[in-house]
Amino acid sequence: MILDLQNIYKDYQQDKLVVPVLKDVSLQVEEGEYVAIMGPSGSGKTTLMNIIGCLDRPTSGTYLLAGEDVQQCKDREMSDLRLRSIGFVFQSFQLLSRQSALENVALPLSYAGIKKKERRERATQALERVGLGDRVTFKPTQLSGGQKQRVAIARAMVNNPKILLADEPTGALDSKSGQQIMELFSQLNEEGVTIVMITHDRNIAAKAKRIVHIIDGMITEGEKSQPQAGMDIEGSGQKTEQPENEADTKEAEESGKEAENE
Amino acid sequence: MLENIRLSFQGLWSHKMRSFLTMLGIIIGIAAIIAIVSTIKGTNEQIKENLIGSGENTVNVRLYQGDNTYEIDYNGVPDGVPVITEETRTKMLDLKHVEGAALYTSREAYNVIYYKNTGLSGGKIYGIDKNYLNACNFIIRKGRGFCESDYKKFRKVVLLDENSSETLFQGEEPVGKTVEIQREPYIVVGIVAKSTKFEPVINSMEDYYTYAENSTGAVYVPDTTWPLLYGYDEPQSMVLKLDSVDNMTVAGKEASAILNGGLFSNDETLKYKADDLLKQAEDLQKLGQSTNTMLIWIAGISLLVGGIGVMNIMLVSVTERTQEIGLKKAIGARKGKVLGQFLTEAAVLTSLGGLIGVIMGIILAEVISRLTGTLVAISVPAAVLAVVFSMAIGIVFGLLPSYKAANLDPIEALRHE
User: Fold this and answer.
1) How far is CA B16 from the centre of its chain?
2) Which of A247-251, B56-60, B160-164, B402-406 has the highest average model confidence (pLDDT)?
3) Potential cystine with A44: which of A217, B46, B198, B203 (Cβ 3.0-4.6 Å)?
């Protein structure tokens, strides 16, 4: 199992008020899966992504990333986890505008202490993999939105991470380049890459093999064959290993947990 | 590291105007310091050169009576001053910094040296031992120096320096000719010259007399023939060749002490003393020191202001690049990496400023030298130190902004617009 989140709670302190954002979230992702986490804004999906991406720590609960307990990690080890185990793809690409596509892609390799020659080779390969082999020397300003996102995906993939974590990867793109990016994700998934994608767009989520809904800090499992209304928190057709929190009340939640423990 | 430096240059280049203005404080400070230091060093070297002569690393130890050198011409041979033995001379060689030691006797040569009817008025005559030419850095221009048998067989041979040869022979070939010294015939065997030419700057009448005395000429005979000329073994002086001019004082004192140990004169004022030109030079140099120190402090304040400017601009840079920092941290850059990147950038900025400052300072020093006519000496250690110091300024004042950058929360930073 690549991702194993168990009973994750996350609170934010606002003045003297404690605001719960994630409430007892449990989620497992197997190697090679393609999961979409779907939810409206304010549902806690970004917080969940930050926790999965080792950018943030849960208030309580356990998170195992490829068997490693993230909660126990020091700041430095969190950095190393982000470097080696996670590939980020952001909505706004987050490319360094003064550097070429190649240099952007090679950035994580330099943090991993890889020699310059190998960095060039591997970055070039990664760019070829996303279909930008002929754009290595281009600066981000010379690339279209879709191409920029491909560079970002190449950068995310270059260190061979355990999972590719995408946050609204098509949010800043027109529908055509968005579609191409989604095809690229599907292709990468077929090549064996584990993908976790966060989106509020049902059509985009539909491209994933598995959909997880998150509403008000709680998640429900959904199935891709049955597109659902965003506000519909009733999980339908879940069958596998996933624990399910469909409860509206705390009591139901408790009982669900007990059931799971058995 | 190299990668960081390359990135820093890239970053600085993309904000040329801003980088330059930030560097300006450092440039002005360093340029001022380099100009001041070069002028001070130039002045000091000029003082030293006027007194000692550049490259001349010998010190004379002579017999003094009170504060003046013992005047044998007027006072005759003193009692209780023994001949300095070869043993004593070799003892000198064991002293620190001493590379050579030689003995000589000397007298003023008023109307005692003639070639045909031409006399040498003024100048000096030296009776030298076989180590003298070497110790005083003489080179043979013509003919030969003295050899072992000249000393053993009391040959009446003489070496002329270029001035005396010019005065006596006026263009005629001197080697092989006979000159008359104290009515004794001496054969000229060679012409000698100092390997370093001493061209003093003449600032006073005294300087002129010293110069005149040195330039009227000198003649050298083997010291074994000295009694043939003057009838006695006269008190000797000693010349020490040192490893450096800077050790004149120390070595001179030690040698005088050894020689004074052998004295048994009733005249308590008779003492061997070293011509401590170095100390005289240093005393003069010290006069200007306090003013110069003040100037350096003032220039230092400009560096402090420059450093604060660097800190300010680095803070702006961190804010501007919050998103970039957030991204770098998100994709796995450790705190140290981010810290290193910004520290390098600050250090590169100020080192570059320091380098430009050094160049400007050298130009400024040259301009000052042209305008005021003072000597300027560029101090390489000072220039290197200036660049290293500017780098240190960058690191010190870059620390706060870099620390701020390294501790940004990647989530917040990524959201920053």
Assistant:
1) 41
2) B402-406
3) A217
Each residue of B317-370: pLDDT tens digit? 999 999 999 999 999 999 999 999 999 999 999 999 999 999 999 999 999 888
CA of B2: which chain A residue's CA is closest? Answer: A116
Phi, psi (5° rounding) for residue A30? -90, 160
DSSP class of A114: -
Q: Cβ contacts of residue A238 below 8 Å, gap of 6+?
A: A220, A221, A222, A223, A244
Sign of CA dihedral B268, B273, B275, B281: negative
> B301-335 in b/e burial notation, b at 16+ Cβ within 10 A?
ebbeebbebbbebbeebbeebbbbbbbbbbbbbbb
Domain count, chain A: 1
In whole angstroms, give the CA distance from residue A222 to residue A172. 25
**Strands ordered across the beta sheet of A218-222:** A86-89, A163-167, A194-199, A34-38, A210-215, A218-222
Between chains, do A80 and B332 touch, taking CB under 8 Å as contact? yes
In whole angstroms, what is the distance from residue B203 CA to residue A76 CA? 70
Closest partner residue to B337 (CB to CB) among A56, A111, A159 is A111
Instruction: Tell me the pLDDT tens digit for each residue of A204-258.
Output: 899 899 999 999 888 887 654 444 444 444 444 444 444 444 434 444 444 444 4
Average pLDDT over chain B reads 85
Query: If you average pLDDT over residues B281-307, what whole number do you get?
Result: 80
- Return the SS3 of A64: strand
Q: Are residues A107 and B335, on separate chains, in Cβ contact within 8 Å?
A: no
Burial class, B365, CB count within 10 angstroms (exposed 0-12 / middle 13-18 / buried 19+)? buried
Interface touch A82/B328, C-beta < 8 Å = no
Tokens describing residue B26: 């450092």
pTM for this entry: 0.65
pLDDT of residue A258: 44
The stretch B82-96 carries a mean pLDDT of 86
Summarize pLDDT for A5-21 with one digit per residue, the tens.
999 999 988 888 888 99
Judge: A80–B334 Cβ closer than 8 Å, yes or no: yes
Residue B183 Rama label (left phi>0; alpha psi -120 to 50; beta) = left
Distance CA A171, CA A201 (A): 9
Q: What is the C-alpha to C-alpha distance for residues B36 and B49, in angstroms, rounded to an integer? A: 20
Identify whether the C-beta of residue B198 lies closer than 8 Å to the C-beta of residue B211: no
Range of the domain at A163: 3-261
The CATH number of the domain holding residue A194 is 3.40.50.300
